[in-house]
């Protein structure tokens, strides 16, 4: 635990240092651009840093520094791994900014989402035109800026890596992750609109495909593989991490889907039932629909995706999903995927010390409270 906390602190510091170097590039153009840096800092100051931790433990998994163990928690880490882990967090922030625009989400981590911050700035300044249009446009640009900065920080780290071949492999994995999460996001918005045209029997598999590419790979699998590739891991080692990371990433997102419907806003930082207002066609919804009567299914479909859902209507939807047995099935899927992930560690080339840490992380990311 101490070592993971130390990594988080180093990633925080690296992000702060990086933003310090980018601020003058932006603000010397115009003082009007200061909010881009300020909002970037705001969105990069929080979060659990799961992606950074998976990247670090992927790097550790080939024994790069495993002998240091907890005793090495106060020691400095090489620039290349800290920068790679921090780049993943900036990439994540970019994805969240864009995701909130796509989903029309007003909040993120208990505060206003990026586009809502820009809306508020427009309103307080008395500018011309639509607050909403300005907020969305500015939010898209902030997400683009963060996306570019994640690349720049990664490149800084890779340039400092002692093994140029390993750095190229890590870059290739990062590039693949970026493509997969982007197309996964497209699949997500596609399912929200196209589900009605597909057979009922296909909806579960289509929702699971969204989980794999929008979340599971970039939340868990890709950070692990990027870290390990940067440390010079071979194909067998990378395959073991992939076999662990994908089912764990699926379990992570299944838990997130439950939180999106039933989560406590004070814990999740998002309004309870937010996924219901957004009309997310998740695995949870697919499982619920499969067990409902035609009448109940029609009522669920009629309400799902209405941004003006009242709390009473949200409670009706929550009760419908609970009564369908879908929550119990999701919990069973989480257990099964975690078991598959842990089984992949048995007999793998991953060191025992890191296996223990990965098991702890698996527990943490799949047992987040409602």
TrEMBL record:
PANTHER family, alphabetized: GERANYLGERANYL PYROPHOSPHATE SYNTHASE, SHORT CHAIN ISOPRENYL DIPHOSPHATE SYNTHASE
Domain of life: Bacteria
Keyword Metal-binding: yes
Name of the protein this chain belongs to: Polyprenyl synthetase family protein
Transmembrane segments: none
InterPro entries hit by this protein: Isoprenoid_synthase_dom_sf (IPR008949), Polyprenyl_synt (IPR000092), Polyprenyl_synt_CS (IPR033749)
The keyword Cytoplasm appears for this protein: no
Organism: Cryobacterium breve
């Amino acid at each position: 635990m101490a070592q993971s906390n130390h990594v988080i602190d180093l990633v925080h510091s690296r992000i702060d240092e990086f933003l310090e170097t980018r601020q003058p590039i932006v603000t010397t153009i115009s003082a009007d651009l200061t909010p881009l840096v300020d909002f970037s800092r705001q969105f990069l100051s929080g979060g659990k840093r799961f992606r950074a931790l998976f990247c670090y433990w992927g790097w550790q998994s080939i024994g790069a520094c495993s002998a240091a163990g907890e005793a090495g928690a106060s020691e400095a880490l090489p620039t290349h791994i800290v920068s790679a882990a921090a780049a993943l967090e900036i990439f994540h922030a970019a994805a969240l900014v864009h995701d909130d625009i796509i989903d029309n989400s007003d909040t993120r981590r208990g505060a206003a989402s990026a586009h809502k911050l820009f809306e508020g700035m427009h309103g307080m300044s008395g500018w011309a035109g639509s607050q909403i249009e300005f907020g969305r446009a500015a939010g898209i640009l902030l997400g683009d800026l963060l996306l570019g900065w994640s690349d720049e920080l990664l490149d800084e780290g890779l340039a400092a890596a002692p093994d140029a071949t390993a750095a190229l492999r890590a870059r290739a994995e990062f590039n693949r992750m970026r493509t997969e999460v982007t197309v996964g996001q497209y699949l997500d918005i596609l399912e929200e609109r196209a589900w009605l045209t597909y057979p009922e029997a296909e909806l579960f598999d289509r929702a699971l495909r969204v989980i794999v590419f929008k979340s599971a790979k970039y939340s868990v699998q890709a950070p692990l593989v990027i870290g390990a590739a940067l440390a010079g891991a071979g194909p067998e080692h990378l395959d073991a991490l992939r076999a662990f990371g994908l089912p764990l990433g699926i379990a992570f997102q299944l838990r997130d889907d439950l939180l999106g419907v039933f989560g406590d806003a004070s814990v999740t930082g998002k309004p309870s039932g937010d996924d219901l207002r957004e009309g997310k066609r998740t695995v949870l919804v697919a499982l619920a629909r499969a067990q409902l009567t035609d009448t109940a299914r029609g009522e669920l479909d009629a309400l799902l995706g209405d941004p003006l859902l009242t709390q009473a209507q949200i409670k009706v939807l929550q009760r419908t999903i609970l009564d369908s047995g879908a929550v119990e099935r999701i919990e069973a899927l989480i257990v099964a995927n975690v078991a598959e992930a842990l089984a992949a560690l048995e007999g793998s080339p991953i060191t025992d010390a890191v296996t223990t840490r990965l098991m702890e992380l698996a527990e943490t990311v799949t047992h987040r409270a409602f």
